[in-house]
Design brief:
This protein is mainly alpha-helical and about 325 residues long. It has helices at about 5-30, 40-55, 60-90, 95-100, 125-145, 145-155, 155-170, 180-185, 195-220, 225-255, 255-265, 265-280, 300-330.
């Protein structure tokens, strides 16, 4: 048994990936409120921060190389797939867009709001990788400043409040730091995601208030900075926190069952495929390759989207992590 394996994190990670896919499927189907489902990115940021709080990074360059090997080759393969299909069917593809995506700069407009980055249709979801790279860079700096890290940890509530008010100012200056804040909420959360009843009640109440504010303000100030970059974003984060805490509680209550599920071969393969599926599903749900543009019927569209996502994800896994697949299958 792998002592490092965390069944709860595995379950949360897979469900977060499915949340993203379902959210984009709903968008393709024209379901306007799909955003309330697509909280997977926020969950990934929370979990990434949470996991790296516990890890030391004695050699920053070596660690960056390991993360590059884990994240970028699969991304480049999915990027090459999108570019190849666009060329084959005669669609426009800009050289500057290819270079920007190759350098993982495609998501900087999520931080610097006034940037005009021309992306590649069908791979728009990978803005997350640019944001994650920025969060990683700040984390490495923070880990080198242990006194500062400990100060934030001891005064995390005050620091969170300051960062929230800071985000208001930054947004109107054209800088969005909410995703970075989300990462560091996970980073400074604590030793685990378990909360007592009082804390859970507070998180649930916060979620209800956030959703009420969001639903009301959407009909009044949709399209403004305060709605798009503050209210909507924080409702996502609060929902993500509530989801992680709730799933952790459920897994603790059904500890044996959740452990068996997460250690099943099928689930481990799904967990292994979560990142490749995140990379590949979007080309079949948005842009020029979206299945609703060339297939009729919701059932057929959904089936083809799922099948094509799985096939392309498996190809990426075989190329980049065949040993990981073999290990899961053979154990």
């Amino acid at each position: 048994m792998d002592k490092k394996f965390d069944s709860t994190i595995s379950i949360i990670r897979v469900l977060a990936m499915l949340s993203i896919i379902v959210g984009h499927w709903c968008a393709m189907m024209g379901i306007n409120d799909y955003q309330l489902l697509a909280i997977g990115v926020e969950i990934f940021l929370l979990i990434s921060g949470f996991l790296y709080r516990k890890k030391e990074i004695p050699n920053a360059l070596k660690w960056i190389g390991q993360r590059w090997k884990r994240l970028i080759p699969p991304y480049w393969i999915s990027l090459a797939l999108v570019i190849s299909i666009r060329i084959l069917i005669g669609l426009e593809i800009r050289l500057d867009s290819i270079i920007i995506c190759m350098l993982n700069l495609q998501g900087l407009d999520r931080i610097f709001l006034n940037l005009d980055i021309h992306g590649i249709p069908g791979i728009g979801q990978v803005w997350f990788l640019s944001v994650l790279a920025v969060a990683y860079a700040l984390m490495i700096v923070l880990k080198k400043k242990k006194e500062f890290e400990e100060y934030i940890s001891e005064h995390r509530c005050m620091c969170l409040i300051v960062s929230v008010f800071g985000q208001f100012v930054f947004v109107y200056a054209g800088i969005q730091i909410v995703y970075i804040i989300c990462f560091f909420i996970g980073y400074f959360w604590g030793s685990d995601w378990h909360v007592d009843r009082k804390q859970y009640g507070f998180i649930t109440l916060s979620l209800m208030v956030a959703m009420i504010i969001r639903l009301i303000s959407r009909s009044v100030i949709d399209g403004t900075n305060i709605y798009d970059h503050i209210i909507a974003r924080w409702s996502f984060i609060i929902l993500a926190i509530w989801s992680v805490v709730t799933l952790t509680g459920v897994c603790n209550v059904f500890k044996k069952l959740s452990g068996q599920l997460a250690r099943a071969r099928g689930w481990k393969l799904l967990d292994l495929a979560s990142y490749p599926m995140f990379l590949t599903h979007y080309m079949f749900s948005s842009g020029d390759f979206a299945v609703n543009k060339w297939i009729n019927g919701i059932f057929n569209q959904t089936l083809v989207m799922v099948v094509f996502t799985i096939i392309s994800a498996v190809i990426i896994m075989i190329i980049t992590d065949f040993k990981g697949i073999k290990k899961v299958i053979c154990v």
